[in-house]
Design goal:
Length: 260
């Protein structure tokens, strides 16, 4: 399994001989609802559009996961697996192969990788977006991705999971609380899933954020603190801090549990 962190929530996952692009923001600015005074993200350097993509996976319909300028640059014939909300975005962009996944549903990518939707982030009072479990069918290796730290207890049924990509520290607003949930939630999911490897997502990389909302955001915790939490709870998990844009092999050990 190879991973490339493309900043923020964007990942290139290589498993089962397939190249899977998750929540890509690769070009242009990140602005919510055209309100650049409220929040704007921009890159210190542009990311090249990865080539030979076999599948696009979108966890949410918000701009930082279904980024319209990036999706316009990608081939509209690439298959897309998406939350129902994100499926609406790519439908409007005239993508030709769209599979909306409800929680618990699975999409099989050419008998190589199975992608199962899990309950993910709460967006407003009624909408719950998607997390995903990706399983390499030949080896049984599994990867779980949820970009805001909202983990359903139903995940326990999928344990163990080899690789977990999720926030490891909190990002919040005064009076609102955490909007990115790491720390205790990342520890909890580590206890549930017993992963070999955990990797932070949801912020950072070669990007800069500005605007009123950004000035109010507060970060609590750190990756170093999360490593200490794991050790205090006797969890043997390797925490990897990836270099933005650098492809790396995930150090996994084969075990009988991968036959699940």
């Amino acid at each position: 399994m190879y991973l490339t962190w493309l900043d923020n929530n964007s990942w290139l996952v290589e498993m089962g001989g397939k190249r899977i692009l998750i929540d890509p923001w690769l070009v242009g600015s990140l602005i919510f609802g055209n309100l650049d005074w409220l929040f704007k993200g921009f890159r210190t350097q542009e990311r090249a559009i990865p080539e030979n993509i076999d599948l696009i996976v979108l966890s949410q319909g918000l701009e930082d996961h279904a980024h319209t300028p990036t999706l316009k640059q990608l081939d509209r014939n690439i298959p897309v697996v998406a939350s129902p909300n994100a499926a609406n975005v790519v439908t409007q962009l005239n993508y030709t192969q769209i599979t909306p996944l409800a929680h618990g549903e699975t999409f099989n990518l050419e008998r190589s990788v199975a992608i199962t939707a899990t309950p993910g982030s709460s967006i407003g009072p009624t909408l719950v977006e998607n997390g995903y479990i990706l399983k390499e069918l030949e080896t049984g290796f599994t990867l779980y991705y949820e970009p805001h730290g909202y983990h359903s207890p139903s995940l326990k049924e999928a344990a163990p999971i080899d690789v977990v990509i999720t926030p490891q520290y909190d990002l919040g607003l005064p009076l609102v609380g955490s909007i990115i949930r790491g720390r205790k939630y990342a520890l909890e999911v580590a206890q549930w899933l017993q992963p070999q490897v955990m990797i932070h997502t949801a912020a950072g990389g070669d990007v800069v954020f500005e605007g009123l909302l950004n000035s109010l955001l507060q970060t609590t915790g750190s990756i170093a603190e999360f490593r200490s939490l794991l050790a205090q709870n006797h969890l043997s998990v390797q925490v990897i801090e990836p270099t933005p844009g650098a492809r790396f092999e995930v150090p996994l050990k084969q075990s009988v549990t991968n036959d699940k």
